[in-house]
């Protein structure tokens, strides 16, 4: 369960050191796009050295490695997979590359005698990945889907617009596959880091179609993303009322009951339970 | 990368940046152990950085190398990572 995932370039010691201070639910240490090709070894070693010094960062630690068709993939995995990380993010993910990643992780977990199983967060950023997104969502270790809007637009040969109509279908596909498999649907980052008003609008739009969270590329985006993706007080109060009414109904052996003139049945109760679970997880109540 | 030193061609490895919280480590082949530190916080941490570099070299079982550390306030894990990368880069040049 996440709201905000903040990208941190892995070759910047200052950013690494402050990575857990910005309030995001997850941090994504990036070895891919934010690191120059000539600095891949440097950033990998720095991240590894940094993580070794930290007992616990108190948030989900994700590492975005380089794609499996690059010369950096094997070294990235060999160096960064440890008990200090929770999740590997795989760019240009497909069912085939994710199955290979599952095998590679199993091997490393065994060799290094890890005490936990590493999760996987695939980036859906190819048209071909979108077509098989439900198969991807079902794979072992996968606990969320991140839509990569920029690369996907490039693959689709469309121009990104502020309205985002060109990726609406992709967003709906990611949401549907994620929800069908009970994992997180995570929206593509908002790239205009100076326009937080538009960021908020976009967060509301994608929350409205079912996204649970959004990736952030600047610390200033975290507060807005957390705010929009958190349950509101109105939602929390409604959920509490539903669950109180449910208890009353159970005493009377009623399967369906009404609250404020509206019928309440199982889907409504599940929604109320999810809202309260989120509120507890994010320490709102 | 290689550097000329008299008639010798020496292998060299460089890693890091001069951004704050970082350092640049330059290593070259040497017939003995030389560690030079230039730091914005030399008065407070110069000796610690030098000893820390020597400790890492000992762990790596390296006793013949020249290391120059230009420090901009790097923490130990950054110095260690940059040193290891610089040494690997030097070895890859062999």
Protein architecture, described:
The complex is a heterodimer of chains A (285) and B (94). Chain A is of the alpha/beta class and 285 residues long. Chain A folds into two domains: 4-229, Alpha-Beta Barrel (TIM Barrel), CATH 3.20.20; 233-281, no CATH class. Chain A has helices at residues 13-17, 40-53, 73-80, 95-111, 127-131, 133-138, 149-156, 168-180, 196-208, 222-229, 233-251, 266-281; strands at 4-9, 26-30, 60-64, 87-90, 119-124, 144-147, 184-187, 213-216, 257-259, 262-264. In chain A, a hairpin with a 2-residue loop joins strand 9 and strand 10 (262-264). The model of chain A has no long low-confidence stretch (mean pLDDT 95). Chain B is an alpha+beta fold and 94 residues long. In chain B, 37% of the residues lie in helices and 35% in strands. Chain B has two helices and five strands. Chain B has helices spanning 42-59, 76-92; strands spanning 2-5, 8-16, 23-28, 33-39, 65-71. In chain B, helix 1 links the parallel strand 4 (33-39) and strand 5 (65-71). In chain B, helix 1 (42-59) packs across helix 2 (76-92). The termini of chain B are close together. The chains are: A alpha/beta (285), B alpha+beta (94). The interface between A and B is medium-sized, with 14 and 19 residues.
